[in-house]
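Today's session is about reading a structure prediction critically. Students often jump straight to the picture, but the first step is always the sequence itself: look for stretches that repeat, for charged clusters, for runs of hydrophobic residues. Only then move on to the predicted structure, which in these notes is written as discrete structure tokens rather than atom positions. Here is the chain we will use throughout the hour.
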Amino acid sequence: MAELKRPPTKSRGFYVRMRLLHGYSKHHQRQAQDKSFFRRHYKWVLWLSLSCYFFSPYLLSQSPKQSLNPLHATGFAGSGSTHSSRALFESSLSLSNSSSRRSQEPKIDQELRGLKIYVYDLPPKYNSEWLSNERCSTHLFASEVAIHRALLTSDVRTLDPREADFFFVPVYVSCNFSTTNGFPAIGHARSLLLSAVQLISSEHPFWNRSSGSDHVFVASHDYGACFHAMEDRAIADGVPEFLKKSIILQTFGVSYDHPCQDVEHVVIPPYIPPESVRRTLEASPAGGGRDIWAFFRGKMEVHPKNISGRFYSKAVRSVIWHKYSGDRRFYLRRHRFAGYQSEIVRSVFCLCPLGWAPWSPRLVESVALGCVPVVVADGIRLPFPDAVPWPEISLAVAERDAARLGPILGRVAATNLSAIQRKLWSPEVRRALLYNDRVERGDATWHVLRSLAHRLDRSRRRRRSRVYGQ
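Below is the predicted structure for this chain, in token form.
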């Protein structure tokens, strides 16, 4: 075999050193190239990283259908992309917190769909001057005062009329009390309202822009927008021409054609001071003992035709008096008594026959104090039927059956009275019929606003359909 020649020891050391130097040189060349590449591109890498960090929350907020938990939905957990997963996590936390805040906000804004109402600041002669008489803000027609007060502090009020959906015109027409009998006299109502319309149409452009169709008034007396206490005169006069395109909040409402509701309107409850209801319930809870079977206190004519020649209550109250005044089950009183609410809260059935108009404040008082209202008024429309289940908490008796109230109530007492009372005593039902100084979710003013919001929705849909049709 040939013998391999090995290089001399010294030469071999030189060879090894040269190989090491050659490798070291190549390593530094690669490092220099890497550093050169990094120097050329690090700005772009930094810009891209910062962009991802700052803009990823915005991008996520524009995608509400994605899960709010990116650690499970996007697969970034444990990926080593610290900045990306941190940005997504912070975005998730922000969205979660904002969602939590929205859920904790009062639902009034959600229910009222961003409704905005501008309240005209009219001279005192149209409203505040009338409050010198304390009865103006407490009597059965005082919803015109209560709604105005509640709107002034409501979240739906806007001080910028240009962004308003509706315009509220606060004119108190029911506070002119007669010096003869103390009842509200509304003979001045039409002229006072016309004066207010002339004022706002001359000082502001909004009435003329819509011909008053987005303006809201309150007519809280017997025949609402006709502004008269007697039906024959109310029908003859009709709704004032200058209000026929406006929206009227009125206590009068019937299920048949009637000239006094030939206008856009919302049926509202008459005013009962909520403080008086609370005081009565504190003394005698609605679910307490009831020792009066059937109750009525108020005007009951012995002779159907009164001195004016008209048949008050269409003679219904006279029929009830003649038929049941001697019946021990019926607690009927013809004279006033300031503490009559203490009698209502003791009663099982409360009679609510029509007076001059179909509606009566007894409807609200009966419901608020847990007494089953017995409505004797043909064709009456009751307020807020979507919130107050009237067929389930009250009885409707035809006017012609007034003389048969005894057996009718007896049959109900023997069958489904307890079921009626359970639904009647719901706090939500009571709340819907009472006004407060500040709007509370579910109270009477809130339901008025909700009705206006629904009208606004319909108006928007009609406008959209017209646009699409074109």
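Discussion point for the tutorial: The mean pLDDT is 82.
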